[in-house]
Structure formats: structure tokens, C-alpha cells
Write a structure and sequence with these properties.
Strand order of the largest sheet: 9-8-7-6-5-4-3-10-11
Strand content: 15-25%
Shape: elongated
Structural class: alpha/beta
Radius of gyration: 24 Å
Largest sheet: 9 strands, parallel
Helix content: 40-55%
Number of helices: 18
Amino acid sequence: MRQIIVRGTALGDGIPKTAVPLMAEDEAGCLTDAAEAIRAGSEILELRADALRADLCRAPKLHELLCSLRKTAGDVPVLFTFRTKAEGGRREADDAEYAGIVRDALNSRMVDLIDIEQERTASADLLEEAHAVSVPAVLSFHDFRQTPPLSALEERLEAMKDAGADLAKIAVTPRDHLDPSRVLAASAWAKQHLGLPFVLISMGEIGRITRLSAAFFGSVFTFGCLPGRDSAPGQMEVPALRAKMREAAGAKRKEGAIFLNGFMGSGKTTVGAALAAKTGRPFIDLDQRIEEREGCAVSRIFETKGQPYFRDLETREIAELYHEGPAVVSCGGGAVLRTENTDLMRCLGRIVLLRAKPETVLERLTGEAANRPNIRGRMTRDGIRRLMEERKARYEEAADQTIDTDGKTPEQIADEILESDGFLSCTRA
């Protein structure tokens, strides 16, 4: 991922930075809040110009305000944002008025970053003008109605990159408990594939996980607030947010999780227990966690809500592992069939593929077909082999390490994982 360095602050390196929106309506209030935010530890000041009195939003008064803010900020970068009401801001503004305000901010030469709403007709021109004066541009999109599908989030991030954004920012509204994991999956994808600094936020209390887990999933900064003055749902006060970010970054520096993947019956549970015992790590069975949270068996979830819903549950459980610390995790046999799950796992640790021959799997699964919805009607050597072949490419593509389990005890397999260079490099990360 590329870095942006503004006034010595590197976005995309180290602990994700904390930004505080300044929401006062006059210059005195902005300067007072800026000083308080800096004392609280804010690393970026966001001037929310849509909160200002209308007469302060345009030159020359805007220039005067920005000049005063620049002196107060010192070495702390200033991000200029005019958030229109359509995207959750305080003021209505048509395209012409919006573009004029952004241009006035750029012309002041007093801002270090500029926010440009992607949906504005002048966004391409404003991006070009920002680059002409060497101001990194944050291309942004906000959806206060919903969380778009993962594919739509990825496409929008790609479009921002193609448009020339220096940093891509998306904030969306969760409608249920599964939506934040979709945002984290998009973050994991962006961290590994986008090549551009980004900020992805699921708003509200439900989405708070997306703010706290930035150290793992790639957002280069997130937003906190001064006591009692949040500017968007779900914001935390700066000192508490910074403490949580440092805590998460400390956990990230420790060895990551070990995800055991492979076909059902390949030994993930027994090997996971052995590996946990040898390393002193907790052992987590994702299927068991899902059953406990949903209050019913995996087979029942498949029958009543379908496989896509179950895969959504898997994605959520994987994403929420960020706060567990290093663990040994047994995944369901179909977990890596979703690319987003693989991306999330790679942000959190490493993936070990356990392989077994069809006849070995058949022997291990005899009598278990009722509890294995994907194997019903295929409980033969050939049926298992065909399903294995269907999944083989995805299994191998996802794996950081592959181990054949036939003829080995769980303890022997655990030792083989521990002896690998991949595991040693993981523990040093």
C-alpha cells in the first residue's frame, strides 16, 4: 500500500491515525476545539466547513479562518471537508456552490488534505486542481441508507483509484449485524489488492468494530470526537479511541492466528486441539461458534436459511477474531470458497491447508452425513473425490502451507506446522 506523508505524519504506516472533526460554527470555536483535540492526542484535524456559518465558507473569510487554524494546528495535518447534506453533512449545496467552496480551500494553500465527494460532477476537475497544488485528495462516498454489496464496495474503491484519488474513503450504514463484516471484508480486499490508502467505516454502534480493527484490516485513519461532540454515529472519544488503537496494534505485532482449512474430515478439529495444546493458544472452532450464537446446528442453518446466509455468518465470525489475540482456528470446509474470507484470514494470520485422501475422509466421516449438509448423498469414495476436486483449486490458492494428514497423528501434524518457516516468520511478525 502506498503511503501519504503530510507534515511528517505517515498515513499507511504504523498505528492508524485518529482524526477529529471540528464542528464549531465560528472561528473561535474551531480554534478552541482544535487546541483541545491536539491535547487529546488527535493526529489529524478535519475542518468540517459545512458546520460553519455560511459567510465563513467562502474566501476571503475562509482563508482567514484556515490561516488561523494552520497556526493552531502546528505540525498536525488539516483535512478540509465540506460534507453535503446528501452525504450526511450539515448543509445543502448544489454542484457549483460545492466546487467553489472546495476551490477556495485549495487556493488558501493552508490545507494538507482535501475531501472531494465522488458523486459531485466537478470531482474530476477538483482532483486535478488538488494535485496541481500538491494537496493529497481524499475521494469520498457516504451512504446513510444501507451497506452496499461487497462487490459494489470493491468496484467503488477501484473507481476511486482509477479517478486519481490519493486516498479512498467510504462510510456506510449497517442495517443488520452482518453488514459490518462486509465492510471489513472490503477492507481486507483493499489492503491486499487496491494499492491505495483507504478508510472504510461502518457507522453506528453496530459498526464500531470497523473503527477499532483498523490496525488489522487496513484503514489508515479513523474518526474520534471530543467529549459529547460526535459528528457521525458510532464515533468514540479521542483518548479512548487512541487507547483501543494502540491495544489493537500491539496485538497485531504478536504472532497471528493459525487458520486450519481443508475438506471435512481432514483433521482440522483434532489437529487444532493438538496445536493449541502445544502452543498455549486458545482453540476456536468456527462452526461451533456459529452454532452457539445462532442457537442451532449448522445443518439446521443450511436447511432453514440457506448456504449463503451461513457463509455470511462465517465471514462475521472470522472478522471478529481480530480482538481474540493469536489463536488456532478450525474453519468449516467451505470457508475459503469465499474470497473475502481468505482475505480476512490473511489480515489476521496464516492459512494451513490440511489434506487427506478420499478414502481417509470416508472412514473418518462414516455415520456423520446427517450433520454434514454438503456431503449428503455423496458419502462414497467417488462422491467425496468429486467434491474435493471441485474445491481443490480454491483450497490450494488460499493456503500458505499445505500438509498431508494421512497416516499421521494430530500431534505429528501439529509438530510439522510448528517446524515450518512460515510459522516461525508468523511468530516474529
